[in-house]
Specification:
The complex is a heterodimer of chains A (402) and B (230). Chain A is an alpha+beta fold and 402 residues long. Chain A has 15 helices and eight strands. Chain A is globular and about 65 Å long. Chain B has a three-stranded mixed sheet. In chain B, strands 2-5-7 form a three-stranded antiparallel sheet. In chain B, strands 3-4 form a two-stranded antiparallel sheet. The relative contact order of chain B is 0.11. The chains are: A alpha+beta (402), B alpha+beta (230).
Chain lengths: 402, 230
């Protein structure tokens, strides 16, 4: 099935986003002491509401059905990730990064490995780079499939789309399990390479999966893309303007749905992404429907990258032999490694004082920063739209709270 | 996929979506591919070979006490990210599987309620003594005590290791055998050198030459394999 829906930019189109001024927020009337105050209803959505992702809580002030104020409350899943990381060895932090965005652990590993490799000036062998791209793009497929399922589930399409999405995700997780030993907490990448080589027959299984995956995408598109109810609920809902996206540092599919041509795979061309030909899908309207559709288009592009990577993967070592995982001590200095994780720009900032543990360790989580515009998207909408908007932001609380 | 409202009145998209659901529902009776679930407790999907859950200690031979490969170097205890390993080192040494006197752990506990199955202990162990198990169901009645595994619960034979991770275990056995052989050659060479050194005054030249050649070929692999974590 072909989608004539969104324009796709030229492969290497360079366009600098202009920093415009975001529109001023509508004034929220504070009427705590007037007679009107009785008309407003303040409700607390979450932290255990079934449609708030994880333990996320929003204090919403409603005027009838309309949202006039929304305050997110974070911290229910705070587990001291950054401080723990400053007491652990560089290697010991790797499994903790799995737990940030627990849906895509390999891209978390990748961003952290990239930061440490910058810090230590480590080269990565060719084959390991290909394995990283393959596993990273598989992670993107399963993350987006998951997100679409959750978003539709939140909007009331109970069960069916989520189960279809999870059926596909399961196949990716099976591939991860036979490669890394674990389905979600992979702990797979190492500084200067990967932990183990691809097992015999893994690449054929991955190719077989990839050959079938577009069929699932088409089926999933047929299932709901044309659905009138879905269109009514998502089009022109939660519009994020391009200016606001730029000035709030929104990244990832959410920024691209607002028409911002910013993909770190293109902008930084980290790892070996410059070798693959793929396009960056862009949206027009920046509403929930665009954010929903952009994931389909990104999955199509990921499939293209995967086909090229699986075709070109060379033989060779998977680990830089000069790097010792244990007792790894980089020179004093600082480094920031960032990648285009499925949710946006995931960055790790590290300062080394020359010892075996990081002096400072900081995560730049895409989920948290994309969530900062939630109030702007929800003001003036109905309370039921809040759930759809939250679902389309694609958050994982493990990453938001850390 | 237009954004005007006119085309939405007919509900074509809903019908199209429902047709897809129906195809999947009826398809699950015919095609095995569409029926992806199993009836779990009775029916189980075979586990993948590389699956890992919690660590266990490998012993050679049949006696878990004598054959334990662990020499209590405590590297895993230091490197474990959530610090779930507790080791007490022995005061005395006892011979290991090849007869070399080594320290051994008097206490080796792993708190699997804390363990996060990251496999770093396996990676840093220079003696191939700790490996990952594949057992995943540990139902217990107590929350803490029964999940604190001691040395006796953790010790499992090398045969069991071969059974759960055949490829990996064979590679480990081959590496260990090579290491032992290298050590044996080195010891033999050292003995030959010592023997050659005694009558060195009379006929030293050929004996020392062969001995030094043997040591120089042997030392590099044994150094790299013993010190480096795999």
């Amino acid at each position: 099935m072909t989608t004539a829906w969104a324009p796709i930019t030229e492969p290497n189109a360079t366009e600098t986003p202009s920093l415009g001024q975001p529109a001023p927020r509508p004034a929220v009337p504070v009427t705590s002491d007037s007679a009107l105050a009785e008309q407003y209803l303040e409700i607390s959505m979450g932290p255990q509401h079934p449609s708030t992702h994880g333990v996320f809580r929003m204090n919403v002030v409603l005027d009838g059905e309309r949202v006039i104020q929304l305050k997110p409350v974070f911290g229910y899943l705070h587990r001291n990730h950054e401080k723990i990381a400053e007491t652990e060895s560089y290697l010991g932090n790797m499994p903790y990064t799995d737990r940030l965005d627990y849906i895509c652990s390999i891209t978390n590993n990748w961003a952290y490995a990239l930061a440490v490799e910058k810090l230590g000036g480590i080269e990565v062998p060719e084959r390991a780079e290909y394995i990283r791209v393959i596993t990273g793009e598989l992670t993107r497929l399963q993350n987006h499939a998951c997100l679409l399922g959750f978003l539709l589930q939140d909007m009331g399409a109970s069960g069916t789309p989520l189960m279809y999405a999870f059926r596909e995700r399961e196949k990716v997780l099976d591939l991860f399990e036979s490669l890394t030993g674990a389905r979600m907490m992979c702990n797979y990448l190492r500084f200067g390479g990967c932990r183990v080589d691809l097992p015999a027959g893994w690449l054929d299984r991955a190719k077989a999966f990839l050959a079938e995956f577009p069929r699932f995408l088409d089926e999933f598109e047929r299932l709901l893309v044309d659905n009138e109810i879905l269109m009514e609920r998502t089009q022109n809902v939660g519009v994020l303007s391009r200016e606001l996206a730029v000035s709030s540092a929104i990244s990832g599919p959410m920024a691209r749905a607002s028409g911002l041509n910013y993909d770190i795979r293109k902008a930084d061309a980290y790892s070996i992404y410059s070798r693959f030909s793929f396009r960056v899908p862009l949206g027009h309207h920046g509403d929930v429907y665009d954010r929903y559709m952009i994931r389909f288009l990104e999955m199509h592009e990921s499939v293209k990258i995967l086909e090229q990577a699986m075709r070109d993967i060379p033989a060779g070592p998977i680990q830089n032999p000069a790097v010792k995982a244990r007792l790894f001590r980089p020179k004093p200095g600082e480094a920031y490694g960032r990648i285009e994780s499925p949710k946006g720009e995931l960055g790790f900032y590290l300062i080394s004082d020359g010892s075996g543990i990081p002096y400072r360790y900081r995560v730049r989580p895409p989920s948290l920063i994309n969530l900062t515009v939630l109030e702007d998207l929800c003001l003036g909408r109905n309370v039921a739209d809040v759930i759809a908007i939250l679902g389309s932001v694609d958050i994982v609380m493990g990453e938001v709270d850390r | 996929m237009s954004r005007d409202r006119g085309s939405r009145l007919l509900g074509e998209g809903i019908i199209k979506g429902l047709a897809e659901t129906a195809r999947n529902f009826f398809g699950s009776y015919i095609s095995k591919q569409r029926l992806t679930t199993v009836q779990y407790p009775e029916e189980r999907i075979p586990q993948d070979e590389s699956f890992r859950n919690f660590p266990f200690l490998v012993y050679d031979g049949s006696d878990p006490e004598a054959g334990l490969r662990c020499v209590s170097c405590q590297i895993c205890e230091k490197e474990c990210p959530p610090k779930c390993i507790f080791i007490e080192k022995s005061k005395d040494k006892k011979p290991d599987a090849v007869g070399k006197p080594q320290f051994y752990p008097t206490v080796f506990d792993i708190d699997v309620s804390v363990c996060m199955s990251c496999q770093i202990c396996v990676e840093v162990c220079p003696f191939e003594a700790i490996k990952m198990d594949v057992k995943y169901d540990y139902p217990t009645e107590s929350r803490f005590a029964a999940l604190l595994f001691d040395k006796h619960q953790l010790a499992k034979s090398n045969d069991y290791y071969h059974q759960i991770h055949p490829t990996e275990a064979s590679a480990v056995d081959a590496a260990l055998a090579a290491e032992r052989e290298a050590a044996a050659t080195k010891a033999a060479a050292a003995a030959a050198k010592a023997a050659a050194a005694k009558p060195a005054a009379t006929a030293g030249a050929p004996g020392t030459a062969t001995a030094s050649a043997a040591t120089s070929t042997v030392t590099p692999p044994s150094d790299t394999t013993a010190g480096e974590p795999r």
